[in-house]
């Protein structure tokens, strides 16, 4: 058994040809289609569409969404966790109501200050999976998607680590626009941008601590994964907060690009009644929301300042 | 037990106040909201939207969609069926993939000529329902929606009456934009329009042969209805065919208005290979697609001719 | 393109090795497992079970179930339809609430007389499928299941051919116990038994008029098939009625065997109120329920008489 | 607004008459029924069954399952958390694959030592719910179920507090057998038993820190709850570990009783390969798994020792 990189032989889901399947809303109906070499989207019913002009739905309908806390060495270094092999991955979940599509609105309630981006790739499960080895796990993967694991860090100091409110609020998971097969994931580079400026970047093969096969085998020791389930594979260093109006995107070479726009909404009515843990601005919240600048490349920090209209 | 109209007392689902729930796609996420008195849509998260400017999803996610063949006296007369009480209702089904939202695209394949409209109201099931009486059936209704039960009549003479291909093709069920409670259905008037001209019209209370309570009790004799299931309640006289570019709408006073636009698509690839029953133009097809003009009000016929740009 | 039998090369879903996946209820949880060569069921969590002693759930959760009216030459002959190639297949649907598992109870209401068996194989869709050719359709098939398409023929003369009440009542689709890949479907023989006596039999390759690839390509001309959808492929000659206490089974060599027991239930309450079309015993009902004995092998008729305790 | 107990007026979901809906598997089909006064289960199709002899399915199909960490004063005291009003509730999630029915098998892998029980009541959401006040939240509740929030505490020191592996493994949520309306939840007493001996007990009204209306309003500030979603309302003091063969039950007066049997399974195959965090027996694990005996009534401790065959 081998779950180290690089591979002797690529698993089938990473071998070509590349296939990207997207789901769009046209009028009031959802349609699946396949991306063409010229960048157009061919719907299964035969129509050829300008892919840029479409309304995208999430290409997944998961019964569960599991996220890796930390799976990139740069993020591990930034947050003072140790790199492999002395640790094992840890997980949290996002509810299906957090799903959002490409070009989605990412909601920031008026009483929250810290809405952080985290560019990631998602793994989509293609078949029922339980009690598998890492080698076997590859066959359970349908494909990969770009994703943004957004978080309301104002709630960082509640929920005792489950991050339900940090990561689980409505709209906090833009994903898509497509599910992609036939691409060597470990040869790709992931970038997160804010208003077009790069704020996170990682070569997936070089930075990944645990691959999706390892993560699937780990989770499936005790939990059955079913077709459509989604695993979010963690983010590289420099997760930071953004504000209404910012366009956040995660772009992965060979896979695609998903973006969302931060939109302000009113504080919830129950908040005015004092119900529940209020958004806070404690040192723990700021530690995570604002990060550890000394361990992050200068360019990312400069780009984020520029996106925020701040002076260097 | 009483399943006759008028009612001594309105069932709860028809008693006020009126509540209309709609589901929209904003960015890439679906949101539920409630219509306000001023015509705006208040999303549950607090945002107030211009209801006219939204992208609507079907407000239902049914596990099954059952349709009444004929439930209006004018349609019964037109098609030579006898009015009550000598007959009982009959049914067919549409698959969930036929669902379409308000302002949807209604697809007409290039090899089909007869895409007929049928304006209807839909009943949405709110709770599990089996083996009930008509009186009990009212409590199983979540609400009502406008709907268009479109049909590719070119396939009328295949499928031995199940109408799978006539009524079951993708996009042939525009429904919504909302689910409405608190309105006396039997005091309402249903109109179907083509490019704004009325081509069907019926006062629901006066024309209905069997109410939804009767139909639910009938079906639920042998089939369990589950929350979200949809029943289409039939159409009045003058179902006729429309062409690409036509905007078809079903408007029901007190309930709402759903519209769709007919869009041309290519003939399916398998058709070129001779697979399956080909669209036909037989007398039986024409009988249903073109209808019985002698039993339809002159104005409806004139309006349809006008919508089609035909001379009187 | 070729959609004739025999094949030059078997499609992947029919090439070995054979894999059979089953879903059982243990305590109150559903578990998937794989059949072993020794006839035991290996759950994914590692447990090895006596396959005979299990409680089976349907191995499918379809969004739609489409059934071919007639796809066997013996059935076509029996019912006076013409064999290919002068006709094309026709379809009806069954709602998801008709699903039943292996060893299920098949309900026969007290006011019905004619509950007919139809042994069939089912095709399970494995990927989204629209606008495909017959050649491409093979890749959309996840596997095959034995199935019993039971029908309450007392309602044959209502619903204008859709057979919603005939075929759509709760429990009328025992299916499973497994989904099977890696078996040459066209080399198999299907048998239906009543109390162990063979009452239907067909060599699938010799009797099939249209293969599943043709049927999928036909339906997917206008209707999107989605993963999990089920297509019932028709029955050979000698569909007849059975009574409470009878054990009906469909056994397909290489695929498996599903059985159900006919159980009497009370007539629905609404029937006593005169709601809906009553079960009838008209010539049309009897024509289908009792069949055309002159075109059926003597042995099948003799076996059914024996199962019913009737003298020859 | 009032979210304190006792109530001036009971919300509708707690006002009589009591209605309990259960879902059973008969043969291979699921059926809903209503409990009768004499303890029999009346299926919707009319059959009257011995409720004790049935195979129960979970009465819920949630898209998400959210659990309150601590909502009872005795549990809060035991674990050194402070009672209200100085704190707010915190949450974690369980995936749908953790669902189990009444009389289910609760799986304990061979490499785990600490499978802890937590008797709870569950709240089932009946309508879409977002941005509500506690007063409004009552209308979103469909009913209540007994539940066992089982946990593999061997994984307590991984997942950084999300408890995905502690609480999320397959089978760790026996729930049911029914959903109950029309009972004053706050007048009831919850008891957890092991082999019939009481090991947890709490009067819900006296011990509850936050009611379900508060919890719903809190969660729905940012997360849309949809029909069928389940909220687990926390457990009283004395959550402890049990072993294969133990029958664990949660009984709530007026609501019902759910039980499960602990069953041993092999360690997962990936564990032998060193994949993932291994079950551990650290002080933190033992702190939670074994609890704080000084703050727990003597009788509960004595009963658990007796169930385990240990001497006093």
Description:
- 4 copies of one chain form a homotetramer.
- With 312 residues, chain A is of the alpha+beta class.
- The first copy, chain A, has helices at residues 73-78, 134-137, 164-167, 204-207, 212-219, 269-272, 283-290, 298-307; strands spanning 19-26, 29-35, 40-43, 48-50, 55-56, 65-68, 91-94, 99-100, 104-109, 115-116, 119-125, 141-148, 151-152, 173-174, 178-181, 189-194, 197-203, 230-232, 241-242, 247-252, 256-265.
- In chain A, the strands form 5 sheets. In chain A, strands 1, 2, 3, 4, 5 and 15 form a 6-stranded antiparallel sheet that branches.
- In chain A, a hairpin with a 2-residue loop joins strand 16 and strand 17.
- The longest helix of chain A is centred in the C-terminal third of the chain and has 10 residues, at 298-307.
- Chain A is globular.
- The first copy, chain A, starts with 18 loop residues before the first strand and ends in a 5-residue tail after the last helix.
- The mean pLDDT of chain A is 93.
- Chains in contact: A-B, A-C, A-D, B-C, B-D, C-D.
- Chains A and C meet through loops of A and loops of C.
